[in-house]
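User: quick one, sequence for these tokens?
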């Protein structure tokens, strides 16, 4: 009986960990998709995208040339 409870607890822990990993992957995919949509939207509307990379704000027009805005981003 004790072994069955241990196995059940292990299964439950594995299930929780598996679901958490799935959620993290889903969020990563959604974020990547939103970035792609933002670039596509900028191209269609002839504007630019702004994002943060390595603590700096980057402005990227549709021609692909990146411009750093105001140096470092403060937290």
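Assistant:
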């Amino acid at each position: 009986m004790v072994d069955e409870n241990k196995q059940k607890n292990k299964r439950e822990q594995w299930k929780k960990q598996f679901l958490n990993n799935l959620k993290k992957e889903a969020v990563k995919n959604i974020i990547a998709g939103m970035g792609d949509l933002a670039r596509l939207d900028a191209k269609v509307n002839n504007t630019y995208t702004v994002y943060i990379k390595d603590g700096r704000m980057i402005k990227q027009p549709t021609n692909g040339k990146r411009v750093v805005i105001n140096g470092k981003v403060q937290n």
